[in-house]
What we know:
This is Recombinase domain-containing protein. This protein is mainly α. 70% of the residues lie in helices and 0% in strands.
Amino acid sequence: MAGAAARREKAKENQNNLRSTAFIAEFRKSNISLAQIAEQLNKNGFRISTDKIFRRKTVQRVINNL
């Protein structure tokens, strides 16, 4: 469990995550799909904390943690 908790804390402090969270929150106001949000994040150069692209499920997880 300590490893998972450490990853969650690291993710909360990651600058890419902080920027993408704000971006996602704005897009949710427009009622576009999770897949479309992921596509826009990727087009704008956003990456998750492990330097991978966003996917629909990744966006859903971010929203769940807002």
